[in-house]
Specification:
By secondary structure, the chain is an alpha/beta fold. It is built from 10 helices and 10 strands. The structure holds zinc ion.
Length: 342
Amino acid sequence: MKIIYTDDHRSHFPQGEVYGGELVTPFERPSRMEYILRELKARKMNDFMAPGKLNMATVRKVHDKGFVEFLENAWSDWQKAGYRGEILPTMFPVPGLRKKPMRAIDGKVGYYAFGTETMITAGTWKAASASAAVAQKGQALVSGGERAAFALCRPPGHHAHHDLYGGYCFLNNVAIAAQGFRDAGASRVAILDVDFHHGNGTQDIFYDRDDVLFCSLHGAPEDTFPYFLGFKDETGRGKGEGFNVNYPMPPGTKYDVWGAALESACRKIKAYKPDVLLVSLGVDTYKDDPISSFKLTSPDFMTYGARIAKLKLPTLFVMEGGYAIDAIGINTVNVIEGFENG
Ligand SMILES: [Zn+2]
């Protein structure tokens, strides 16, 4: 399987993340990629490719124009305002306030952010746009006839809405790739999100559409980030009704329950008869993940990779979360190997 990767992700490494009332080293950090690369090479998966130039026309089909401009210019605007720290929102247009376009950078940050955990730094746009280009390259390969590809994206993307960033995500890589498949001629595209956290951004982007089926397996929103989306009764809107499927599960979920949800999602995907499958591949369902609460073991990742292969669809894996750094390589590559042997 071809693996698309670039070192450009390293330019995004904020000094801090707000966690439990403290400023800590971000869980989402560049070394995550080093562990995955090391494990890929150890298992002789060496078919690496660099991404091409990011096609912004596709990006603008899934993201708001003003939002993309904000991300691109946020750091220079922040500098111009005289601030010395990294970009962190302090005020949000929650219900009761008005969501109107802002002139001041502080206002813009609150307008386009949904949380305070994710900082923007000098190198964030470079890394986020390169990450989207990695996903686009994977899409082009699979559209061109490859059975499967692995877009080793960082920063991740599935929390990024049409016009919101957060959850370590800026541009929604999997959504950009899904749109790319549609533009390349696919009639129906399925996205399977196996990250521990709900893919709120991906859901938001395709909520009104029937040409993209979105299935997400995740920690129940009452218990975990991103909290306010990901409930079972969110099934799509208008033409999109029935094409959004959420599987929220409680803390402590093990593979017996998780695997049954995956089985149900796989059956829905099969019935949808998509031309292509995208997998939002987060491995933070692992039992020792520091910010998640599911209990999957390393062999479980191999098992579910094989189950996904049985769908016999052209497949693009897009890297999302996973924060148990010493196991992220093993778990990620187990999915890929399980798929290849499945
Ligand atoms: Zn996650």
